[in-house]
Write a structure and sequence with these properties.
- The structure is a single chain.
- By secondary structure, the chain is of the alpha+beta class.
- Helices cover 40% and strands 18% of the residues.
- A 4-stranded antiparallel β-sheet has the order 2-3-1-4, with helices on both faces.
- A hairpin with a 3-residue loop joins strand 2 and strand 3 (49-55).
- The chain is globular.
Length: 144
């Protein structure tokens, strides 16, 4: 299965994942994914949210994987970067599945996040992703 996982910093606070820490956070999350028998295909940590595309086997429980990614990376950010003592991920997350033929397009999309967010906010981007996937939602429950 090819799965894009998206989640935001609590209260969508921008600049919580600082540019100078981005690579370390991405490498740390990559290790969590590998240790859970999945393959990271792409990751991009924005200042206020993260996108990742993973290859996963059907026997991997996604809710457990996301919980491990969020809790472990949050602890890592707290311990490693003093200025992020108030850092927290929002409670929920989005999961979007893709066929093998879509993988390259999704990887390009994820890796172009910096350019993409010059035009759209995370909130706008996420709403479009939900709408394109025909996912019913109540905006009131999307963001902390």
């Amino acid at each position: 299965m090819h799965i894009q996982i998206v989640f935001a910093v609590k209260n969508c606070q921008s600049s919580f994942i600082r540019k100078e820490h981005k690579d370390e956070v991405e490498k740390y999350i990559s290790g969590i994914i590998a240790n859970n028998n999945c393959k990271l295909l792409a990751i991009y940590c924005n200042p206020d949210h993260v996108h990742m595309l993973i290859g996963s086997r059907p026997n991997v429980l996604l809710s457990d994987l996301v919980r491990k990614i969020k809790s472990s990376s949050s602890k890592f950010i707290h311990e490693k970067f003093d200025k992020n003592k108030h850092f927290a991920w929002q409670e929920g997350y989005g999961v979007f599945t893709y066929s093998r033929s879509q993988v390259n397009l999704v990887v390009k999309y994820i890796m172009a996040q910096e350019e993409h967010h010059r035009k759209k906010t995370f909130r706008e981007e996420y709403m479009i992703m939900l709408q394109k996937s025909k996912i019913d939602f109540n905006e009131k429950y999307l963001f902390d």
